[in-house]
Recover the amino acids of this structure.
């Protein structure tokens, strides 16, 4: 099976995000970046399918130069090669614009399966995979926890709301968006890290792919969220704060 | 271009009526008419409950191939309804189903869904959250073509009923069986639930901050001292540190206890939707900017490994 995994580099989960001078994005200068969590699960699913059935795993990512480090990480975990779409204006593109970039890079590869994470931890749009399927004219399924290859295509386990699940059968080629938690993530081995250095990373640009930005949805400004409740912060030593909390819960909130 | 079309989801009434309220706000701002549509029989509950609410017109979208949800079927059906009605705005509840098919539907019109919105402002512009709730962003639609938005659960309050004229039209899209490529199975639950978090009056819930499976007893002891049920955010159940049935959030259970004590939970929106109806929320977290503090009544900013044992000890002492 030939599998393309579309991955995204995002600010680390615990990063302190601050608004930049334009008021339209965050200060990126001193941020640490990492592989988006559900994309890590998409990569894992792809690698497991390859372990079972053979084939090739190609990682694909769009973004500025720095994305290269996340691509190397994916190669170290076992992906065979990579395509990096270098573009510095990812923020100026809406989800359709980004999906057009990815679709243009995927088309010549003719993969059997395209996997991506359910949503990114930064923008949280959760749309790229589904739009990719539309642009490529392929069937799709979202929120997938498990993928099994069958004679005619795939059987996948889809998560529904409130603890329900569903099995879906679909033909290949197809696009799946992967939910976190379906598999145990592997670590890159020392050997894997060594090998990654020699693996192919093809560099493409948005201009080469013939895709311009032209968004229909624009981000006008970012702001810190307003509090929905006024929180009483209980300060002091851990012991003092704990005692103060119990007092409050008993005599003010009256929930104990 | 005519108006605002709200697409409701028959099995998810509550959030569908919140989406309807959002559609009404949008109709008020833009001066456009309001209509609603849902897949199902005109006698379905969703239409009966919609009668008397602001929209005067509803479309019951019916086709044998829409009996079971598929993205292919729904995209075709709503593509045709949108072509017929030519709405300027199409509003959906932000459900798993909407996340599954609406990005594809919007792309078919060369558009992008503005998903999971929390507010609609003059313009109109739409607010949604970024960075797992750490930041808010304002989005605007530009250019010709319909604008697709989906509404976050709990962001809008359902409108009260007001007597008025209400007409339901049938809409039968043209769909053939070979256009539906996926075969969905019947929904099932993983295992029989042995924990009923929904009826627990007190809940201690644990998140990523606990760092390791071997630290779970620390919060279990706190839950025991409180007489509370132990719950968790998604990553804890993903790692298998607690069973899935103890998960709170959009993919787990929705709870509204008297007390919800969140330990080491940052408060991503997927978690907040599952617990923000709680009467009293307490957050213990080392990050003062964690979104959980936005919904907390009381907060302790500090190391949970120091605070939790003190809390457990104080509760035990108070009992004696």
């Amino acid at each position: 099976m030939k599998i393309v995994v579309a991955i995204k580099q995002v600010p680390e989960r615990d990063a302190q995000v601050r608004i930049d001078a334009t008021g339209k994005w965050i200060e990126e200068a001193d941020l640490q970046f990492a592989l988006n969590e559900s994309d890590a699960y998409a990569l894992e699913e792809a690698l497991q399918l390859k372990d079972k059935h053979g084939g090739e795993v190609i990682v694909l990512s769009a973004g500025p130069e720095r994305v290269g480090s996340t691509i190397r990480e994916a190669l170290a975990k076992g992906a065979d090669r990579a395509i990096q779409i270098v573009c510095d204006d990812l923020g100026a593109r809406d989800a359709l614009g980004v999906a057009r970039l990815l679709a243009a890079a995927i088309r010549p590869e003719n993969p059997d399966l395209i996997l991506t994470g359910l949503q990114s931890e930064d923008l949280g749009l959760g749309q790229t995979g589904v739009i990719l399927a539309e642009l490529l004219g392929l069937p799709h399924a979202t929120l997938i926890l498990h993928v099994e290859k069958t004679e005619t295509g795939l059987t996948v386990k889809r998560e529904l709301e409130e603890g329900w699940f569903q099995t879906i059968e679909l033909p290949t080629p197809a696009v799946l968006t992967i939910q976190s938690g379906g598999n145990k993530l592997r670590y890159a081995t020392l050997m894997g890290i060594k090998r990654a250095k020699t693996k192919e990373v093809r560099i493409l640009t948005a201009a080469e792919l013939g895709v311009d930005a032209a968004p229909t949805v624009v981000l006008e400004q970012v702001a810190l969220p307003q509090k929905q409740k006024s929180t009483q912060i209980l300060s002091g030593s851990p012991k003092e704060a704990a005692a103060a909390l119990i007092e409050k819960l008993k005599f003010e909130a009256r929930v104990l | 271009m005519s108006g605002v079309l709200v697409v409701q989801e028959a099995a998810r009434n509550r959030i569908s009526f919140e989406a309807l309220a959002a559609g009404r706000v949008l109709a008020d701002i833009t001066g456009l008419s309001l209509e609603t549509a849902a897949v199902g029989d005109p006698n379905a509950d969703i239409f009966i409950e919609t009668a008397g609410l602001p929209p005067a017109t509803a479309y019951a979208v019916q086709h044998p191939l829409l009996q079971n949800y598929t993205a292919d079927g729904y995209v075709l059906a709503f593509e045709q309804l949108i072509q017929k009605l030519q709405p300027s705005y199409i509003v959906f509840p932000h459900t798993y189903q909407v996340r599954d098919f609406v990005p594809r539907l919007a792309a078919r019109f060369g558009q992008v869904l503005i998903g999971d919105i929390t507010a609609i402002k003059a313009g109109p512009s739409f607010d949604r959250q970024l960075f797992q709730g750490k930041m808010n962003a304002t989005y605007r639609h530009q250019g010709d073509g319909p604008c697709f938005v989906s509404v976050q659960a709990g962001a809008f309050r359902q409108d009260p009923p007001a007597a008025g004229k209400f007409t339901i039209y049938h809409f039968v899209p043209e769909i053939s069986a070979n256009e539906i490529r996926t075969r969905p199975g019947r929904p099932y639950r993983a295992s029989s639930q042995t924990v009923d978090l929904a009826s627990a009056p007190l809940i201690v819930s644990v998140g990523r901050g606990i760092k390791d499976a071997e630290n779970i007893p620390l919060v279990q002891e706190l839950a025991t001292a409180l007489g509370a049920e132990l719950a968790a955010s998604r990553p804890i159940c993903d790692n298998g540190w607690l069973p899935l049935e103890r998960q709170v959030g959009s993919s787990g259970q929705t709870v509204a206890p008297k007390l919800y004590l969140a330990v080491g939970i940052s408060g991503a929106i997927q978690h907040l939707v599952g617990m923000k109806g709680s009467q009293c929320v307490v957050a213990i977290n080392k990050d003062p900017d964690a979104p959980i503090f936005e919904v907390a009544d009381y907060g302790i900013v500090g190391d949970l490994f120091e605070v939790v044992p003190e809390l457990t000890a104080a509760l035990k002492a108070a009992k004696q």
